[in-house]
Design a protein that fits this description.
376 residues; alpha/beta; Rossmann fold; Alpha-Beta Plaits; 2 domains; nine-stranded mixed β-sheet; 14 helices; 15 strands
Length: 376
């Protein structure tokens, strides 16, 4: 049974530092020594400030860096952002200022190596720094995710695929939500992060994981050796069936039943946490999948007032389905695979998912024929 440490917390560095030190010691941080190659992997999705609840908070990053330094090791803080320069993200997030004066290297992942993650995926390119690390400290953010429902500790490891390779893997695996979830499970099983800390002090609800989400104070910090156990503890906290979480569902299908974590502390009962509206990415007979994607699934749409025509959505789109035309974006919905990467990375929150007329009709008919209880 995996242990998950749960503590109430606030963003006060002087309170967080001893709490982080306590958590790291409890998880076996004593194994870090002067020769350890330590990778600290925060969530650095895109340029954002701490109050937007999109990135791992700088006080948590600093506290973990200081813990590693206290063991005589020199940590590397690294990630591969979807958009924006790494330095811009460090400055906007407050991490650059937080790490000032500390003997810590901070840079984006630079090189990939092919690693066999097993299953149907075979060899995939993963950041060399993650493969070579003796210790990985996985610093995730508790956020909703329009495709995977929630992005927690397991999903955070997808950042170990270097940014320009992410669209390729969304295209190859992301058409089917469960296939993409199985890829995330295989990456998690391959990297096996040594320590996982989840920042849920200020979480993100609604249409996350980017600017489409809404900050939600939860006041909780979680930690554990097993990222799947931490993610399962979040489901229990939110009163969410783990089978609704594609990653946990895929993990259960791969390894059998999920083992309930042993909670160290008090797991709060969070009610009313707003999850993103989702529809299955594919369902029904395989020969109908293309039609279903085009006609029934929610499609990305643009708010012309908020859009600044920066072109980031066009660059990230794995299917090449978005074309800037003058002052408007043109969507090729026949090519769109409904991965919603464009919504995730839009720096202005100008993109959202919208139901098609056919999709709305099917949902209403299904609700009439198969009534369920109230949803959050």
């Amino acid at each position: 049974m995996s242990r998950v440490i749960v503590r109430a917390a606030i963003y006060d560095y002087h309170a967080l530092r001893p709490l982080i030190f306590e958590m790291m010691e409890a998880m076996g941080g004593g194994q870090i020594h002067g020769d350890s190659r330590v990778l600290i992997k925060p969530n650095l999705l895109a340029p954002a400030s701490p109050r937007q609840a999109i990135l791992t908070h700088p006080a948590i990053v600093r506290s973990v860096v200081e813990y590693v330094l206290s063991k005589g090791a020199r940590p590397l803080v690294a990630d591969s952002p979807a958009i924006g320069s790494f330095e811009m993200i460090l400055r906007m997030s407050g991490i650059r200022d937080a790490l000032e004066g500390l003997d810590c290297e901070c840079r984006p992942f630079q090189n990939s190596v092919l690693v066999d993650v097993g299953g149907p995926f075979g060899e995939i390119p993963i950041a060399e720094e993650a493969i070579q690390a003796d210790v990985i400290v996985n610093l995730a953010k508790l956020k909703t995710h329009s495709q995977m429902l929630l992005t927690l500790t397991v999903k955070n490891l997808f950042g170990c695929i270097i940014g320009y390779r992410k669209p390729e893997w969304h295209m190859r695996a992301g058409i089917d939500r469960q296939t993409f979830a199985r890829l995330l499970v295989q990456i998690g099983r391959t990297l096996r992060p040594t320590f996982n800390i989840l920042d849920g002090i200020l979480a993100l609800e609604g249409q996350g994981p980017g600017r489409g989400g809404v900050p939600k104070p939860l006041g909780v910090l979680m930690a554990g050796r097993d990222p799947f156990a931490v993610d399962l503890a979040v489901c229990r906290m939110l009163d969410l069936d783990p089978q609704q979480m594609p990653v946990l569902k895929a993990a259960a299908e791969t390894d059998g039943l999920l083992i309930e974590p042993k909670i160290d502390g008090t797991l709060p009962e969070i009610r009313g946490f707003c999850l993103p509206r989702q529809t299955s990415l594919v369902f029904g007979p395989r020969f109908l999948h293309g039609f279903i994607r085009r006609q029934l699934l929610q499609r990305p749409v643009c708010d012309g007032v908020l859009c600044q025509m920066c072109g980031e959505c066009s660059k990230i789109c794995p299917a090449g389905a978005i074309t800037p035309r003058g002052t408007l974006l043109q969507f090729g919905y026949d090519r769109c695979i409904r991965c919603y990467c464009c919504i995730e990375i839009c720096p202005f929150g100008a993109l959202r998912s919208a139901e098609t007329i056919a999709g709305r009709l099917v949902r209403r008919v299904a609700a009439f024929l198969l009534p369920t209880g109230p949803t959050r």
